[in-house]
Amino acid sequence: MNRRKFLGSVAAGSGLSLLPGHATAADGDLAARVRRHLDRALAAGSPSVVCGVIRDAHRYVAGASQDGPAPGGRTVFQLGSIGKTLTATALASAACSGRVRLDAPLVLPPTFHIPRKGPRRITLADLATHTSGLPSLPPNLLAGADPYDPYAHYTLDDLAVGLTETTLSTEPGSAYHYSNLGFGLLAQSLAFDDVDAMLKREVTAPLRLPDTTTTLRPDMASRKTVGHLAGEPVPDWHDHVLSGAGTSVYTTADDMLRYLGAQLRPERSPLRDAIELAQRPHFTADQNRRLGLGWQLSTLPDGRAVTWHNGGTGGFSTCAAFNRRNMTAVVMMVNTFSEESDSEPRPVDALTFALLAELDAA
Q1: 3-state SS of the chain?
Q2: Which residues does the chain have with pLDDT short of 70?
């Protein structure tokens, strides 16, 4: 076990031969396409993988494993940073109802010092677009952290201390810099010390996502797959302070398909206005990528516009992407940590985008 490599995942938000495995899938061409990508995920080293697909009005879930039963639509995985889009949707919902303004400054209780750089204060929109200038993590998070559960020890008191030691790298609103700390603070600003209940009230309950939660219920524990790092089982992550960044969110493929279905057809959702606002561009990072609230908005080399986010914890890697023009969406979750290199994306990300491209071309 590489402690440095494992702790490196805390800030993350990476031609394979087929490998036999146990799988469940729907019939037809779509099932065959999904199965090929499941096999490639196994060949890349995933102990198990589940994939959910939407094409027009059709939804499919398939799973595969190296050994033992294949995961299905109700199998529980940790979601990682895709959970940031839940927090961003909660912000958008509050903005649409007039409870907050996107350009309102970040406000926390008086004991929490908000760093400043330049004349403008950090706004809620800055936090939701990773343009606050905040570092990825609080400077005091990793000191003394358990590498297998690096957020579990961190308290609100620790956060108050950490913010006094935090400096901004850029003036708010001026540059993109991915920040788990920023999204953790965003959730705390919306519902101080009550983030779990806020996410349920604002997002997961209205969208009927019963298994998307920061707390593993007993009825979910029996359905949860075990996370892995370098082939070894590792514990789940737990986070009571920065969970708005997605660090301790659980979900299932069934829930993620309902969530992606709402993204494709907001007009059918009780959160229509919030979803539209979250998907709207709010900051341009470069010529190929803009930032919604939480969501990444990319233009691919073939000209397709794809909305997406990926995620990971110490034992899980995930990716979700959709194309509203073609009414297609893909979510893939594997129970192993992986990281991208300078030249290659994570297998789960590459496979998710490749499958979405196939669906768009079909």
Answers
A1: CCHHHHHHHHHCCCCCCCCCCEEECCCCHHHHHHHHHHHHHHHCCCCEEEEEEEECCEEEEEEEECCCCCCCCCCEEECHHHHHHHHHHHHHHHHHCCCCCCCCECCCCCCCCCCCCCCCCCEHHHHHCCCCCCCCCCCCCCCCCCCCCCCCCCCHHHHHHHHHCCCCCCCCCCCCCCCHHHHHHHHHHHCCCCHHHHHHHHHHCCCCCCCCECCCCHHHHCCECCEEECCEEECCCCCCCCHHHCCCCEEEHHHHHHHHHHHHCHHHCCCHHHHHHHHCCCEEEECCEEECCCCEEEECCCCCEEEEEEEECCCCEEEEEEECCCCEEEEEEECCCCCCCCCCCCHHHHHHHHHHHHHHHC
A2: 1-28
